[in-house]
UniProtKB/TrEMBL annotation:
Keywords of the record: Glycoprotein, Glycosidase, Hydrolase, Signal
Residue ranges the record marks as coiled coil: none
Protein name in UniProt: alpha-glucosidase
Taxonomy of the source species: Eukaryota, Metazoa, Ecdysozoa, Arthropoda, Hexapoda
Chemical reaction(s) catalysed: Hydrolysis of terminal, non-reducing (1->4)-linked alpha-D-glucose residues with release of alpha-D-glucose
Entry similarity comment: Belongs to the glycosyl hydrolase 13 family.
InterPro entries listed in its UniProt record: GH (IPR017853), GH13_cat_dom (IPR006047), Glyco_hydro_b (IPR013780), O16G_dom_2 (IPR045857)
E.C. number(s) listed in UniProt: 3.2.1.20
One of the record's GO molecular function terms: alpha-1,4-glucosidase activity
Source organism per UniProt: Drosophila rhopaloa
Length: 630
């Protein structure tokens, strides 16, 4: 009996010791961002891994040197393999290709170079079987000048007369001038004289891309019908192109357009940067237009059922404007207005504080209840490896896979594909072709659009054509899917592990987020969810070896953490246990750590605390001893 009593006493003492070890969890403060409570259902897109396919460069099935729909269908299992939820395709519609498909001649027809409508239907079937959602590019700002609507508008057909933005120009001393000083994104005046109609038309991009006139309700209705057409074909949503350009200011009472003011820092009068675009982008009407498109999607869903259809909006506007695209108290907007901050705010020399600021900027501006997203690259911007460093590809993929919300990967970034130098002779992008051989490289988007690298065979396995539409990268024998599948810690395999982990983990899908620079070199992202594991992602952005005490920055972390994802640069291995007071990171190393199951979390006085599992066993032992001693 005495023995039992002594045992119970020791157990009580040990339990008291354990309780004093327990830590408050989580450590709420301003930087925590909650993305929803653990029991509410997340919609498919809220934690989605999105993947952008640039169809010309993904996979060529018919040997003409240009990718196509059958190529995409053939390779969709690859997207499944790497954990992709949905893919958005750059335009696949009939087009003279003056801007590689962003100049659409028929919005409801498939371009022959990409295949047929039957090929599209086949792609949809394959996608459905694999449970990969298809998102199409919706290009509302302009059509091609070869579009039937434009032809009829130019001919003065009453039905289409006001479909585009036409103006007779300004007469000065008997001479005709463009209506305003507006400049096209792709250089030179945004106004083009049309001999047939004897008027200027507006084109914010190349002159073969006339701007549609959204002040005409018939244009709005026609474009909503384009959305309905593709929704009926089964797509899960749209990426909306060049959103801020859709409306420009209306002409004044004298039917004149106002000039835009100059930017002092740009002395090239042909360059888009020469003017401050206060009348041609970000007009307030544009926000409501996006809400009206969302209403089209929602009413389609109400009528036809199925999962929510989504809008992803392309806008490089100031953050306060971007946030309005999410919706307001009375109207829903784009579920995912693209977050381009990782592209626009970070450079090769950014330190961990800059990374922290960039991530928090989105999270702190985002309205309550909305979903974040992280875009690392696209077909308009230098590739992430070229922008932020080849040796940072894994850490950036790690960052976007562990930050809350959706992530968007541009094809090839999962392999570490980088920009390819393209000679002036081989340059095809209109943005560069409109310049000259001495400056074209600053404007060209060809370097990030080269064919996808599948294997080390001819044309990197992209095609069997003798010439592909853009040259193949020189590094394709070292950077390709086939090879990277075999290397356990290739970029591709790290990417796959990240998305496997993300799918398995409730914390990564819905936990709270803390983003913190631990020094100039080290960034930490902590994700925590009550009664679940805590994850910590660590990036060593620089080239030094860093020793860190995680408990100093995150006092609520357990003393020991398990390594769950590493890169080629790491010295620790998956499964290793590390001491949270002393961890070494190698140059440009990145890791994901997870709390081990030797801690339980419990609530007391409204605060959650962690308790070593040992404490729970001792408590049970104490009860058992007490009962047996009676
Ligand atoms: C968007 C597209 C870009 C295109 C432009 C005009 O920014 O991403 O590729 O050139 O719109 O449509």
């Amino acid at each position: 009996m005495i023995k039992h009593r002594l045992g119970a006493l020791i157990a009580v003492l040990l339990q008291v010791i354990c309780l004093t070890w327990s830590q408050p969890f989580p450590n709420y403060h301003a930087d925590f961002v909650s993305i929803g409570d653990r029991d509410s259902d997340l919609k498919w897109w809220q934690t989605g891994a999105f993947y952008q396919i640039y169809p010309r460069s993904f996979k060529d099935s018919n040997g003409d040197g240009v990718g196509d729909l059958n190529g995409i269908a053939e390779q969709l299992p690859y997207l499944k393999e790497i954990g992709i939820t949905a893919t958005w395709l750059s335009p696949i519609f009939t087009s003279p290709m003056a801007d590689f498909g962003y100049d659409i001649a028929n919005f409801t027809e498939v371009a022959p170079i990409f295949g047929t409508m039957a090929d599209f239907d086949h792609l949809m079937e394959v996608a459905k079987k694999l449970d990969i959602k298809i998102i199409l590019d919706f290009v509302p700002n302009h059509s091609s000048d070869e579009c039937e609507w434009f032809r009829r508008s130019a001919a003065g057909d009453p039905e289409f007369k006001d479909f585009y933005v036409w103006h007779p120009g300004r007469m000065e001393n008997g001479n005709r001038h463009p209506p305003s000083n507006w400049i096209s994104v792709f250089r030179g005046s945004a106004w083009q004289w049309h001999d047939g109609r004897q008027e200027y038309y507006l084109h914010q991009f190349v002159k073969k891309q006339p701007d549609l006139n959204y002040r005409n309700p018939k244009v709005r209705e026609t474009m909503s019908n384009v959305l309905r057409f593709w929704l009926a074909k089964g797509v899960s949503g749209f990426r909306i192109d060049a959103v801020p350009h859709v409306f420009e200011i209306a002409p004044d009472a004298q039917n004149q357009y106002r000039d835009e003011p100059r930017n002092d820092w740009d002395n090239d009068p042909e360059d888009y940067g020469y003017l401050q675009h206060i009348y041609t982008v970000d007009q307030p009407e544009t926000i409501d237009l996006v809400y009206s498109w969302r209403a089209v999607l929602d009413s389609f869903q109400r009528e036809h059922g199925g999962e929510e259809r989504i809008l992803m909006a392309e806008t490089y506007s100031p953050i306060d404007i971007v946030m309005q695209y999410y919706g307001n108290a009375t109207a829903e907007g784009a579920q995912l207005p693209f977050n381009f901050l990782l592209i626009s705010e970070l450079s090769n020399s950014s330190n961990a504080h800059a990374y922290e600021g960039t991530a928090l900027k989105w999270l702190q501006h985002m309205p309550q209840g909305r979903t974040a997203n992280w875009v690392l690259g696209n077909h308009d911007k230098p590739r992430v490896g070229s922008r932020l460093g080849r040796d940072r590809v894994d850490m950036l993929n790690m960052l976007t896979a562990t930050l809350p919300g959706a992530s968007v990967t541009y094809q090839g970034e999962e392999l570490g594909m980088t920009d390819v130098w393209i000679s002036w002779k081989d340059t095809v992008d209109p943005s560069a072709c409109n310049t000259n051989p001495s400056i074209y490289e600053q404007y060209s988007r060809d370097p990030e659009r080269t064919p996808f690298q599948w294997t080390d065979a001819q044309d990197a396995g992209f095609s069997n054509a003798s010439k592909t539409w853009l040259p193949i990268a020189l590094d394709y024998k070292l950077v390709n899917v086939e090879l990277e599948r075999q290397k356990p810690l290739s970029h591709l395999n790290v990417f796959k592990q990240l998305w496997q982990l993300r799918k398995q983990s409730n914390t990564l899908q819905r936990g709270e987020t803390e983003v913190k620079a631990l020094s100039d070199a080290v960034l930490a992202v902590k994700r925590g969810l009550e009664h679940d594991s805590t994850f910590l992602t660590l990036l060593n952005i620089y080239d030094g070896v860093e020793t860190i005490n995680l408990r100093q920055s995150f006092p609520d972390l357990p003393p020991e953490l398990k390594v769950v994802v590493v890169t080629e640069r790491s010295q620790v291995k998956v499964g290793d246990l590390i001491n949270s007071t002393s961890l070494q990171l190698q140059p440009k190393d990145s890791l994901i750590l997870q709390s081990t199951s030797s801690y339980y979390s419990y609530a007391t006085n409204g605060e959650s605390r962690l308790l070593p599992v040992l404490g729970v066993y001792l408590w049970l032992a104490q009860v058992a001893l007490y009962l047996s001693s009676r």
